Amino acid sequence: EVQLLESGGGLVQPGGSLRLSCAASGFTFSNYAMSWVRQAPGRGLEWVSVISGSSPSTYYADSVKGRFTISRDNSNNTLYLQMDSLRVDDTAVYYCATRVGGYWFPFDHWGQGTLVTVSS
Amino acid sequence: DIVMTQSPATLSVSPGERATLSCRASQSISNNLAWYQQKPGQAPRLLIYGTSTRATGIPARFSGSGSGTEFTLTISSLQSEDFAVYYCQQYNDWPPLTFGGGTKVEIK
After folding, report:
1. Number of Cβ pairs closer than 8 Å across A and B?
2. Which of A98, A112, B28, B57 is the most buried (most CB within 10 A)?
3. Are the C-beta atoms of B19 and B105 separated by less than 8 Å?
């Protein structure tokens, strides 16, 4: 069974940093692209970033480019999102997501999410 | 960027009735369109991909159609567990991947 478990969320001040993790199991992690998607309170879904499976290529939404860094550790089946220079409008539930068994998209597996709150 | 526009924002439907949700892309996305269902406090769940292919375990009452810029999700006979928010997503032209703003299906 595919499982994705995010961690690392919490309260941080504007301008601060946070690193999210997503522990994956139940599939060959290194074979699949992984993404982060966020959802601000009461709002819709916003794609944040994607990283390919191996020899990683990375892509970002303009709203986070230059501030967030996606990475992965295939030996430990873990996805990361390093978030720097955080802003109040980065407040959201952050989900890791993937498509297992096909192209990179759409997302057939999601984690339960981790809440990031940026506030002074 | 491709803008995805969903309508209506809220759809009030009685159990057992048919629901029709619309999604429009700002430019052609071929058939690279997915639909997700999200219930409060839960992660989204993939319903439909490739415009009309049901994801694993999705009941046959969910169907998708369309092409180019106009797409539809139809729920043939609403069950109590179907009341939720539905999002469309294009994955034809990225980055960025883009989602619609959502349609909330509520009990009439």
Report:
1. 57
2. A98
3. yes
Burial call A22-33: b when 16+ CB within 10 Å, e when fewer = bbbeebebeebb
Asked if A105 is an interface residue toward chain B (Cβ–Cβ < 8 A), one would say yes
A27 touches chain B (CB under 8 A): no
pLDDT mean over B10-36: 97
Whole-angstrom distance, CA of residue B10 vs CA of residue B106:
7
The identity of residue A42, as a single letter, is G
**A60 close contact with B: CB closer than 8 A:** yes
* CA–CA separation, A99 and A34 (whole Å): 8
**Partner B contacted by A45 (CB < 8 A):** yes
Closest CA relative to residue A117, chosen from A6, A61, A41, A49: A41
Mutation for A interface: B39, B73, B97, most A CBs within 10 A: B97
Predicted confidence (pLDDT) at residue A102 exceeds the cutoff of 90? no
pLDDT, tens digit, 9 for 90 and up, residues B24-75 = 999 999 999 999 999 999 999 999 999 999 999 999 999 999 999 999 999 9
- Residues with Cβ within 8 Å of B21's Cβ and at least 6 positions away in sequence, in order, are B6, B7, B11, B35, B72, B73, B74, B75, B86, B103, B105
Q: Which of A49-58, B71-80, B97-106 has the lowest mean pLDDT?
A: A49-58
